[in-house]
Design a protein that fits this description.
Elements lengths: L4 E6 L3 H17 L4 E7 L4 H7 L4 E4 L15 H19 L3 E6 L1 H12 L4 E5 L6 H6 L5 E4 L13 E3 L15 H8 L7 E5 L6 H17 L2 E5 L5 H11 L4 E4 L5 H7 L2 E4 L3 H10 L3 E3 L9 H10 L5 E2 L5 H14 L1 H12 L6 H13 L2
Parallel strand pairs: 1-2, 1-4, 2-3, 4-5, 5-6, 6-7, 8-9, 8-11, 9-10, 11-12, 12-13
């Protein structure tokens, strides 16, 4: 296999970053000679997560348009121009064979410049509803890897490849790691475990819903692995201390997501694209609480695609504080329902997604 030089750009959310890292890891698995450079947005989580994953990253001075905060958009035109110029210099200096975009502010700028410089390009559309940036890029890029069917309603059919989303390879065959997972989190095997995922930054509604349900969980002896998010870490830890509930294991961020999934009997989660794909692969019964604070309500559409097939449950964000705890308890008590949901969600798993995406990347370098 010839040496490939690739720029991978994606960030702003865990879904974009971990998809980018999964692609990079698969490329390196194919050949350590491949040379990879990441491009992200200054001040965003990718600037820490990518180096922690073992790859170099360069940051652009860029941010997205704030739909509800007009004053924060004043610098957007300047940031965009500066970022496009820097992206051109990065590409000129690195001379990549291919540029891959997994989503995020920086990704749009880098991929656009690459298309204008006639560099082969591939983007990921991780959601069931195509994002604005990807719809704008679609006319120029060479390939679009998607996670849902019928995406040719947004993109040219000859560019679309249904691959699924690239996820962590360690999520496969979790049942063999159940005991290791219980020991890792200090859980009691005879008690039920609820995993709560509000995203890497956290979700206030979900955190407050869990706090309200805490007395019920405590009385029932339910154990919680709770990703509170960095924004709410101190606040939630203080509330846990006040409640004096020994069954709660709260973390700002879960480093061993594979073990968190392995330990869980039931999962409560937002419906970001990567989380949905991971849960399909993990084959876990899940209650989705889609975020209302995303473009075009795409998380609800992600979740609804599974709910309609009997593969997940859904509680709307606006009623979560009143209903989420009750829904979780009902599911935790119902083993037959858990088994049914797990079996149905497994049908949507695409364990070879990362492999197939990298195959498309390599094909572009051979054109």
């Amino acid at each position: 296999m010839k040496k490939i030089k690739a720029i991978i750009s994606g960030g702003g959310t865990g879904g974009h970053i971990y998809s980018a890292l999964a692609i990079a890891n698969e490329l390196k698995k194919r050949s350590k000679a491949h040379e990879l450079l990441f491009v992200g947005a200054q001040g965003k989580m990718e600037m820490q997560r990518v180096p922690a994953g073992g790859y170099p990253i360069v940051g652009l001075w860029i941010s997205g348009i704030q739909r509800k905060q007009f004053l924060k958009n004043i610098l957007f035109p300047l940031k965009l121009v500066v970022s496009l110029r820097k992206a051109r210099k990065i590409i000129h200096d690195f001379q990549p064979d291919v540029v891959v975009g997994t989503g995020g502010y920086a990704s749009g700028a880098v991929v656009y410049v690459a298309t204008q410089m006639k560099i082969p390009t591939l983007i990921l559309e991780q959601n069931s509803l195509a994002g604005l940036t990807n719809k704008l890029l679609a006319k120029w890029v060479d390939k679009i890897c998607v996670a849902y069917e019928h995406m040719d309603q947004y993109f040219s059919a000859e560019k679309v490849v249904l691959t699924g989303n690239p996820v962590r390879s360690d999520i496969i065959k979790l049942t063999k790691r159940k005991q290791v997972a219980l020991a890792y989190f200090g859980l009691q095997p005879e008690k039920k475990c609820l995993l709560v995922l509000g995203g890497s930054l956290g979700a206030r509604t979900m955190n407050e819903s869990i706090l309200q349900a805490m007395p019920t969980f405590s009385q029932a002896g339910i154990q919680l692995i709770w990703q509170t998010g960095h924004l709410y870490d101190e606040e939630m830890k203080a509330q846990c201390t006040k409640a004096n509930y020994p069954g709660i294991h709260a973390y700002p961020f879960l480093e061993r997501m594979d073990l968190a999934y392995a330990a869980a009997d039931v999962v409560i989660a937002r419906a970001g694209a990567l989380t949905v794909s991971e849960l399909c692969l993990a084959q876990k019964p899940v209650i989705f609480v889609p975020s209302p604070n995303v473009a075009e309500d795409h998380q609800t559409k992600n979740a609804q695609s599974l709910v309609d097939k009997g593969a997940a449950l859904l509680v709307k964000d606006e009623v979560a504080r009143q209903k989420l705890g009750e829904e979780a308890m009902q599911l935790l008590k119902d083993k037959a329902r858990q088994k049914e949901l797990a079996q149905h969600i497994a049908r949507f798993a695409k364990p070879n997604a990362t492999h197939e995406i990298v195959e498309e990347v390599i094909r572009l370098t051979c054109v």
